[in-house]
Amino acid sequence: MAAKNPPKALFARKLCKMPSFARAKRIIITFHSLGDLDAVGAAIALQRFIGKRAIVAPPDSPNSAARRLIELTKTPTVLFSTLQLGPKDFIVVLDSSSPHLLPHLAGIRPGLIIDHHPKLGGEISGEIEINDPSVSSVCEMLCFLLNPSDKASCLSLALGIISDSAFFRNASSTTFEAMACLLERGGLSYSQLLSLAISPESLGERIEALRSCQSVCAERVGSYIIATALAKSHSAHFAETLLHLGADISFVGSAEEGGHISARMREGLKNEIGLDRIMAEVGKAFGGSGSGHSMAAAASVKKEELKDALALCTKLSEQLLLSMEHGKIKKIQW
Known about the structure:
Blueprint: H1 8-16, H2 19-22, E1 26-31, H3 37-50, E2 54-56, H4 64-72, E3 89-94, E4 112-115, E5 128-131, H5 138-146, H6 151-164, H7 173-186, H8 190-197, H9 203-212, E6 217-221, E7 224-231, H10 235-244, E8 249-254, E9 260-265, H11 275-285, E10 289-292, E11 296-300, H12 306-324, E12 329-331
Parallel strand pairs: 1-2, 1-3, 3-4, 4-5, 7-8
Antiparallel strand pairs: 6-7, 6-12, 8-9, 9-11, 10-11
Helix pairs in contact: 3-4, 3-5, 3-6, 5-6, 6-7, 6-8, 11-12
């Protein structure tokens, strides 16, 4: 077990020493909008660790892979907006501390926040905060904090790690240590996990990717290519597709969710450019928000400002790339 992570007994004692947790009638576990495998997997494992007092309360519908995990583990959930909060409720927030990704918590101070995203300013605060940007996922953190042994918890945490580490592209030695523990304790096979972690591309995703190709604009900066595009939906899927087509950095804007930009980047730029910081700046510039990881991030902006926001994404990326190598910017003609 990694020494930097407190063991299960210590984590349990820390929670029990919190007066608000000890006297709480309900422990409400929630996470960011459109919960992914990391957020939902962590919520399922924490709910099983705490027991009957704990309720998993998504703010809205999680993504398709996360919904499948909820069904597979037979985890009951209650929409956060339907809860009548009382003074004896203790709220735990997982996988985010951004107010723009947690609008359902407006005016509410959580008792505990567990997150792995770097703090860029303006985050909500909790009575206790556990934050470690060096890890791949909240599920990796909870593997060591909870030390689970039941199959459902191990499965949930393992899927969250696979997903948020981008299939171990963002992994560290502790990520592999966590996965090895979960596979052994849960009696799981990695091939089984892969079949659950990979969402098959829907017909809608494939059609939208093809339609969106006509909106692609690419610029060459030295030996790198920045690609931008507009899509009606599935912006994250198309941003990933642009990397497979040859882009080094991609930004895809979509009017879904009121205005959203998904950003992706190749592994080779990981230590040079942080998409999380670019997205935070873009979100701030257009009155929205941005966060994520070094190689995968997102920002929310107004849908009528998507084109201007994409232009700023390109400009900020160009500045960072030009500081690496003094190349010239060249627009690629199709």
